[in-house]
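User: These chains co-purify. Model them together.
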Amino acid sequence: MDKALTKNIDETRGPLDYQGYVAAGGYASVAKAMEMAPRDMMALIKEAGLGGRGGAGFNTGLKWSFIPEPDGGPRYLVVNADEMEPGTFKDRLLMEQDPHLLIEGVIASAWALQATTAYIFLRGEYTDAEELLLTAIDEAYAHGMLGTSVNGSDYRLELYLHTSAGRYICGEETALINALEGQRATPRAKPPFPQISGLWGRPTLVNNVETICNIPSIVLNGVDWFKQQGLGEEAGSKMFGISGRVNNPGCWELPLGTTFRTLLEDYAGGMREGYSLKAFLPGGGSTDFLMPEHLDVPMSYSEVGKLGSRLGTALVMVLDDKTCPIGCIHNLIKFFSHESCGWCTPCRDGLPWVEHMLLEIEQGRGKREYLDILKEMTGYMGPGKTFCALAPGAMAPLQSGLKHFMAEFEQHIDEQCCPYKHDHQLQRSA
Amino acid sequence: MSEMIATTKKQSRQLSAEEIREIEHEKTHYPYTQAVGLEALKIVQKHQGWVSDESLLAVAEYLDIPVADLEGVATFFNMIFRRPVGKNVICLCDSVACWMLGCDDLKAQITSRLGIEYGETTEDGEFTLLPVPCLGACDKAPVLMVGRETHRHVDPENLDQLLNELQRENTKSKKTM
Amino acid sequence: MADGMSEKVSITIDNQAIEVDPDKNLLEEVLSAGLDLPYFCWHPSMDSVGSCRQCAMTEYADEEDQHGRLIMACMSSPRDGARYSLQAAADFRAEIIEGMMISHPHDCAVCEEGGECHLQDMTVMSGHTYRRYDGTKVTHRNQNLGPFIGHEMNRCITCYRCVRFYRDYAGGTDLGAQASHHHVYFGRYDDGPLESEFSGNLAEVCPTGVFTDKVFSKHYSRKWDLQTSPSICAGCSIGCNINPGERYGTLRRVVNRYNDEVNGYFICDRGRFGTGYVNDDAVRIRQSMTRSSQDADPVLVSNADALQQLQDMSGAIGIGSPRASMEANFALREKVGKANFYAGLSQQEFAILQQILSIYQDTPAHIASLKDVEASDAVLILGEDLTNTAARMALAVRQSVRHRSFEKAAEQKIPLWHDAAVRKLAMDERSPLYILSPHATRLDDVSETTHICNAGQAARIAAAVASRFDKEVLAPEKLDKAEQALVKRITASFKGARQPLIIAGSNSMSLPLVQSAANLAQALYQKNELTQLALVGSEANGLGLMLLMEDSQQDLQQAFATGTQSAIVVENDLYRRAPTAEVDHFIAGLEQLAVIDNIKTRTGEQAHLVCASATFAESSGTFVNYEGRAQHYYATFKPVDSILPATRWLAPETSLATLTQACSQTLANCAGMADLTPGQDYHYAGLLVPRQQFRYSGRTAMRANKNVHEPKQEQDPDGIMSYSMEGVSPLKEARVFNTPWAPGWNSNQSVFKFQDEVGGHLKQSSIGVRLLDKRNSAEEGGYIALDSSEKNTAFPLYHLFGSEELSAQSQAIQARATSAYVAMNPADADRLGFNAGGGVTVQGNGVVPLLLRDSIATGSVGISVGLPGLNVHDVLPDVSLEPAPQWQAPPQWQPDNIIVSDRLHKLHEQEGD
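Assistant: Joint model of the three components:
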């Protein structure tokens, strides 16, 4: 059977319009979903075992089930399309190449949640996706898939596109809700969870683009089919990708549990000539480095988790042997430090401190005591210490980097220069 | 006796009919007008290039939300410009994949050619250079945006070409003016 | 906050067992237990948001758990039987403060907050002593925030308290958080004065020196060098508890002093910044003087001569004052005899205050304290512009509308201390607040309806509501359809309320409005015994003065009518109380006029004898606030010898305590005054209560430029406090709550050490005595027949900054004040031929500017009160105005935002059913 996410994608052709999409079997899940009672559909998604594709992997149906029964007031479904995790480029592909799939997923999901309004919270820089989604939404309205009478029923659903203006923190669901309300995008404390008090204090579900794009095929093909799409315990296929110095960087839909070796060698065509694999971040900038000995790890939430990292977004960044790992970590921390919302102390004040020390080390002014402070900082900003997951995520590459690249850290400090400087210059002149 | 506060009170600017039309359209999407704040700032920026104090006041007045609130939002988001920017805003991705693949060299190239650092605008008001976090095209790194256009697989040659084209367009538009 | 108390639960903290309230958060309970746990973003009045991460503790899952997990105490409910540790999280807390401090300038030596800085205290407490960060600090540009508040953003540790107070708590709209990450900035969009009437609290809410008291900064002293005393604000009838501080004979600043039933943690900007007159030689009378005739130049006289001349004034009548203490008024009454004692109040204000006193004695409703106001869940304000006449009550009303959010949170099992979540869940759903006012008000942003109407119509609407609760009240006529719908809504809201509250007062200058408020409270009481009533006055001791009048009807007009040739006026400017011509006539007829006052007034300028009296900061006494709460204030410092307290001019040989006791014994309803102070012979182990902190510096040296000998310690003949640093430990036995301080807690945050629990009652000290609380269930009087003679052609307009006599003489307040004006609805102006932008000639007062405002009741004209250029008594009740179209506004006249409420002139009135 077809792939759940990419069956319509042909980058040389571009996205299907409404007619083309329907001709390819699109929007069939809407009618099928609406034959189900909303709670039954939630149960179906829960049973399918669809893990949240934003990075956390939490069971989507279970997350949905915490929404209270309708009370006649508004309820919201919000699609998190604020893709900004360094090294991640899957949602962009899905939205630019098959916008109607996302809309179909929104409608089916909204039915299950009995949402009255849905928003797609799109990253402002994704201008192509913005235009394509606006067109697709208009088409869906024009064909009665959205609006007062969804697919001819008496279910009413409005779908709006909200384009943001660039803040990584908006990927955090409660910060996203604040941003959507027109406020500063600082996160909210949980509980209460958005299912209870979300957008404007009303029941709200926030799901990632890829998560929502999985819904139509689960509705159409059922739980067993979906479970078979994964190779191991975990159900479904997943968008995987690789960036860095590989021969064929890109993004592919593959079964959960595909090994990293398959991804790197069969899909990405292996490392570029002259470069070898030094380490890799399995799923975005906020995951721990894995090493070449982990080449055969099945890329699933649980298996990557067992190695002390996270599958995250499953978009792998490859660190080669000619790139300075301290420079790489500094680049990541600089990103997180800048993207901190400024709400809680460890993240707001700790990250710039870490950024400062890493820069000093990288530029040959590092001090020995920095290493102790850096280690301390990974605890200071670890899970449970901060208001949201931004700083703990930022600490993932640092803490694993301190473990795997201690020799490089010490060499930087002892020699008061970056040992990769020569390589970098060679690359430049090449 | 009374302490004079050294400010000239700024006045809001009249929003254009087009700006108002677009803001009104956005208003239909949300049950509370505060939610339109960011969208309205983006609309103003689309038309004016940036958000001046006068524009900020105008949006706050139009939506009847406190200007302090709106400034809090405007200064929070990366892509709202509270200072004038050039006609072409070059947003160069400096996140990890692009960094590995040489975005620093591209930045040096732009700086030496246009004479601007990050956050600066050329004297002729044509170009502003800004860093931007991961643009989500890491498989095609390095990446940059000019205005709403994303450019992938940027290298020294095609960057030069791109700047040539932009400068040509700039001179062209100047001549026709 | 929460209704009712939950069963206490037991927890252990570092093996110490304590009983805690599960409805409170753990931080509060840890502090209430007397333990030290550092915090920043949490505030007892503003609850928790969990941003600073400073109050981290360790929670253990069970007895076996060795590691536990880190929790934020302010964001955690205590779990019955759970085990916690403060110790185990100490390292994390030290790291937190180290993080906060990476960009802090460490400028304590030149920072106004130094020595009472919560950040300093918490830094020491957390054990952060060495700064490891060696990078560049972030710096900011500061803003000019107006005459009240200084701004030094580099000191900011980003706790968000300022915006949470200013916006969430006080409803201000012009201060916000800007930018993000390590660059977060708190300020206005642009330079300019902070608009909120409560901006001064930022100086106390800010845990460090970002927001500071600018007036204090200009003449600064360290907290430990200030001589302080427990005092009561003289700025209005609320009676906020304050703590003034003095150094070198000048009053340096005023800060809030906690009283859970009155002002809690906050005061208004009039109270904080309105005491500059105390130091101002241009305003003060510092030495007594005589004049041979009313227009002769004054001659300075000694105290002894002045006292003798006062002594010689036999047969004089006495004119008291609502801004003078109970004791000063009483001493005057004793001196001249009750029959010759006149309240220095206009006929109208006298009648209204007398009515209020009589209502308080008769009403079955509870007289609401500010704490009761906050606890009320349906409020009707009749005619009072609270923000400008009793500002602290407006702040309390603003909290009352949050009850709906607490109900909603409780339904969702969200703890009520979870501030952000509670506010978000409710969005703009609020408990009902109805305002009937002749103009827009600063509370309109949280009111269900603000109905613009004159006082008479407001009284009728209140009567209509009352008639729906008790048929004995006759439903009035003259209500239009919209008003009938409004009556329905108010009725429904009151029916659904747990604790309804009606607010009115004397400032509306409408007798029927106060009467109607009382009737409504009484009718409502038939259905709900928790019904509350609050009737505010205008000055610090207006109600007290009425208690002194007892059954006497002697207002100022009666005094004028005596034809007396000799009068003694205590702390009162008659020109603020009666029409100019009448006062002129009265004074012209006097052979002898003695004025005892602390400031120069028009009355004093014509007196034959002027005696220099002490201000609230230099003398002690008792004020009775709007609710009948008698509160004692203690002199902060001793003035120069030529200044005496008014009581000492009038009763030179009598101690203050004796006068207080005499009041309590002589006056009906004043028995409670006997309990206000611990008694004149109070001491503990031979020690008095010190006015100076034990770190007070320079005692032997501070006057060395004048005399190398250390002077004898000043004695306070009136009290139980010493002008000294020795005395009873403030934390232990002192029966008087002066400046809060506790070991390790140098800032005002130390106040919790003086409370029985966080935000609770003071363990020591008096919070005042409510004189009018009924001892037995009162017999209910009947309903009051509304005075129907009132015309309502004009109404008064008040300004927090400018309308009150004393504060208006302070430079900081003047920087925010304006001159007199008249305001009317543009429709009326059109109809009557007044041009926009021109002026109006007001009978006997020259030309003043005319303001046109949509949000003003038609058919009435608004007259500014107390502002220079217009005596409101010349105008009310019969207004005669002429257009002055040629009049040119002076350049300093900037009518924008003159009626502060203007900014909210968009009324969210939902007429219809």
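The beta strands of chain B are 88-93, 127-132, 144-146, 149-151.
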